[in-house]
Amino acid sequence: MSAVRSSPLHSAHEALKPMWITLNHMPIPLQFVPHEDVARQKLGLADVSFLSRFGVKGPGAGDWLRSQGVTPPAEINHWDAIEENGLVARLASTEFLVEDGLEGVTAARLAAALGRGLPGVTPVFRQDASIAITGSEINSLLVQTCNVNFNSFPMNERRLVMTSMTGISVLVIRKLSDGVPLYRIWCDGTFGACLWKTLLQVSQELGGAAIGINSLYPDLAKLKALSLR
């Protein structure tokens, strides 16, 4: 049995007393308040640190990913979708991040296939704090916390933005989820709780709130089934 992991944001959630669920061996807030629909539509923050991630770098990393059935973006600082709502991002000319969706297994498969590495291909240990932000008021939050104008480039370009948010280095992508803007943010896990608390404070001032995983993935039966894996 795999050991239970802790989200880098766990301590920040405890004071809010959410309902918990364990996914990928990580306790994660299932729900903070009984009705989160309004927060999700207006401005909601969810902890998605439980999603499986795999990093790889080196002069042979791109070719190795392709040999494993994962085609990385041609351009640096871009991302593409992979199976089961996952993604692959090119962070640099020879460094990549793969993250699974809720039911994906690609990251785990790649980690097992690479092991400790090969000549020119080195695994990168990823222990990111990862946050999803959704809702119509996202731009109001970003204006106060980040100096990048994400509306200056089309959403379909699938850009990966490396920037600073509340003084913390982050990676950011954006997409649509059921017609609602959804931003994904990654940062070093040691700074995750600080970033979460600041973003949540600003969100609450804008009428938003922390939301649980069931607001992003409303199929509760599926979540419960995944929690037993």
Instruction: Give a short account of the largest sheet.
Output: 6 strands, mixed
CATH top level label of the largest domain: Alpha Beta
The SS-based structural class is: alpha+beta
By DSSP (H or I, 4+ residues per run), the number of helices equals 8
Task: Indicate the CATH architecture of the largest domain.
Answer: 2-Layer Sandwich
Beta-strand percent range: 25-35%
Account of the protein in words:
By secondary structure, the protein is an alpha+beta fold. It has two domains: 10-49 and 128-227, Probable tRNA modification gtpase trme, domain 1 (Gyrase A, domain 2), CATH 3.30.1360; 55-124, no CATH class. It has helices at 10-14, 37-42, 61-67, 106-114, 138-145, 192-205, 213-216, 220-227, and strands at 19-23, 26-31, 44-47, 53-57, 78-82, 86-92, 95-99, 122-124, 129-134, 161-165, 168-177, 180-187, 209-210. The strands form three sheets. A six-stranded mixed beta sheet has the order 10-11-12-9-3-13. A five-stranded antiparallel beta sheet has the order 5-6-7-4-8, covered by helices on one side. Strand 1 and strand 2 (26-31) form a beta hairpin. The model has no long low-confidence stretch (mean pLDDT 93).
